Amino acid sequence: MSTRADMTSDRTPSSTLDPLVAIADQFAHQGNITSVQAFGNGNINDTFLVALDDLDQTRFVLQRINTQIFRHPELVMQNMRILTEHVCDRLQRTPLDRRWETPRVLLTQDGQDHCSDDHGSFWRAISFIEGSESFDTMQEVAQAQEVGYALGMFHSLISDLPATKLADTLEGFHITPRYWQHYEQVLAQTNVSATPEVSYCLKFVSDRQALVHVLEDAKAQGKLPLRLMHGDPKINNVMFDITTGKAVSVVDLDTVKPGLVHYDIGDCLRSGCNPAGEETQQWEAVQFDTDLCQGILKGYLAIAKDFLTEPDYTYLYGSIRLIAFELGLRFLTDHLAGNVYFKVKYPEHNLARALVQFKLTESIESQATTLQNLISDLR
């Protein structure tokens, strides 16, 4: 295998490359770049898949961090390096009996975890989990159980990493009262066009104000401990082995920060138990699938039972209900504010997303007894 020094004469100088390829080249320690293509459907960062002609590393993920959202991207990278190094050390000391990988931070040629382009944009690269795939929705209980296992394994591997070791890179993220406060500010400053859909959303939110403080009050009262959370464990951030169908990784670690694992559990169930998906236009038909919920919780609790406390179980249903509502509130607020946070494909996109989440919340509420009995049985 050629080294970087061996290949110098064969490489195109970065100054003559396409700007995107030139950025990717900063992280390509061996091999030449053969393609850089848009990758995934994230709502925040710009993501690309870089292909190389190197046998040891054929692909990696290149991202331009949205610094309007992540205002301290260097702390995001610091968090990611601390977390991934901790997980890798855990896995070396206590190997699992199945495949499990964590994304690795790739360094530039001069040993940095990021680089900047001529416009000042912040770029980073992470390893690609080869032989894996992700899904936006799921239909099978066996797959749901693997999603639960993945989140449980992620929480388990970082359960001994003190929350104080990581910076809070998104202050207020997954703090539902903060979202409520922002919603009220935007509503007071906006001339709302009261279409039937908007009116439905406004009333839906108003009727559920009492939900907003349930988890934060429990944290303030010492019932729920501060731990490290993923922050965005929706199902398309779980990678599955293409051959075995088993979960092999949890990716998209930008939002890892101190918080409550209940936000993760609720978010995982919110995204995983809606077979219609977050982007469906048929919002009135959205349903929360309790069979998929049972599968996710069964997989999760099989791992997480070692670190969950009695009060943790008490607030599981509340977290399932709250996080669907919280995301709907965030989508609605962004729609009213003019679509300044989430990427949209058309002006009413965030309104449509809000309607999906509110319908999902309604479905969760209608099955409250079933869900509470399910949680009790799994304990």
From TrEMBL:
Record SUPFAM superfamilies: Protein kinase-like (PK-like) (SSF56112)
A Pfam family hit: APH
InterPro entries the UniProt entry points to: Aminoglycoside_PTrfase (IPR002575), Kinase-like_dom_sf (IPR011009), Pseudomonas-type_ThrB (IPR050249)
Limits of the Aminoglycoside phosphotransferase domain: 36-279
Origin superkingdom: Bacteria
Residues making up the signal peptide according to the UniProt record: none
Protein name per its UniProtKB record: Aminoglycoside phosphotransferase family protein
